[in-house]
Design a protein that fits this description.
Layout lengths: L7 E4 L2 E4 L1 H10 L9 E8 L36 E11 L7 E7 L9 E5 L13 E14 L5 E10 L3 H5 L7
Antiparallel strand pairs: 1-2, 3-4, 3-6, 4-5, 5-8, 6-7, 7-8
Bound molecules: zinc ion.
């Protein structure tokens, strides 16, 4: 018989909720809970040996501007190289201002404030349409690692702002990703 405390772990004599597990339940659902996590993409900037973002070769030799007129399929006009990984997230729809949101991500990702979050176009069931279509891009303003008293990373809280140039840069209406 499973322990009634399987959802709790002991930390210096005190019982604490296992927040990783709680978030897992919130994201993926459980017997008594509908899944609330949405599938999106975490766009991580590639770094060189010094930890600096790697510039995309599409940048203009003179102006150093990334090519935004001719669609660059490597950086999508960001001017830096990046990789995208699937992520589950929860977005708090209460806005701090017009286009800033708090996102919650599982602990098993590396992330920093140079990275971006990508919302996908989803179908009626809440699953991303295939092939995947990017909907909105969020510029991460601040990353808060949420740790237990024990020091363990439980989840990421991320304050991010919608990238307003999205439609201009990416020509969302006409582009197929
Ligand atoms: Zn490029």
């Amino acid at each position: 018989m499973p322990s009634p405390y399987s959802n709790l772990y002991n930390d210096s004599g005190r019982l604490e909720l296992d927040l990783r597990e709680e978030l897992e339940r919130t994201f993926n659902g459980a017997v008594d809970e509908i899944p609330k996590g949405r599938t999106g993409l975490l766009r991580r900037m590639r770094r060189d040996a010094n930890g600096d973002p790697i510039r995309c070769p599409c940048r203009d030799k003179q102006t150093d501007e990334p090519s935004r007129d001719s669609y660059c399929r490597y950086c999508l006009g960001m001017g830096f190289l990046w990789d995208e990984r699937k992520m589950l997230y929860y977005k708090n729809e209460d806005t701090f201002n017009k286009d800033s949101f708090m996102f919650y991500l599982q602990y098993d990702k590396d992330i920093d404030s140079k990275d971006y979050l990508v919302e996908l176009i989803i179908d009626k069931e809440g699953n991303p349409v295939l092939p995947v279509k990017r909907y909105k891009l969020y510029n991460i303003l601040e990353v808060f690692p949420y740790k237990s008293d024990h020091g363990r990373l439980e989840f990421w809280k991320i304050y991010a702002q919608e990238e307003r140039k999205w439609s201009t840069w990416y020509g969302v209406k006409n582009r197929q990703y």
